[in-house]
Specification:
Helix content: 55-70%
CATH superfamily of the domain at 3-74: Winged helix-like DNA-binding domain superfamily/Winged helix DNA-binding domain
Largest sheet: 3 strands, antiparallel
Radius of gyration: 16 Å
CATH class of the domain at 3-74: Mainly Alpha
Structural class: alpha+beta
């Protein structure tokens, strides 16, 4: 797989609203699946599918501790990517609002 294909895989994984929400929820600390399931509005099997996609993209890692599986961000680079993306979007919204005000 090429670097470009891997980059696309990461952005595709982050491009789904639920997966984006999962990753944002994990930014502060690792969490068990039970906590992730409380934070989303769908079944455990659906959550598992989203987590699998995020793991396959290299965004998350998991560790079994006792009976629970904990997920965490694989790298601080992912957190930085989300921060940069959020900044970009905030600036974009600001520019859009400025353009509306100038009409």
């Amino acid at each position: 797989m090429t670097q470009e294909e891997l980059s696309v895989r990461v952005f595709k994984a982050l491009g789904h609203p639920i997966r984006y929400k999962i990753v944002k929820f994990l930014l502060d600390e690792p969490k068990c699946v039970c906590k992730l399931n409380e934070n989303v509005d769908f079944s455990q099997s659906n959550l598992s599918q989203h987590l699998k996609i995020l793991k396959n993209a290299g965004i998350l890692t998991s560790e079994k501790i006792g009976l629970n599986i904990f997920y965490k961000i694989s790298s601080e680079d992912i957190a930085n990517l989300l921060r940069i993306s959020d900044e970009f979007v905030m600036n974009l919204v600001k520019k859009m609002n400025e353009n509306i005000d100038n009409i």
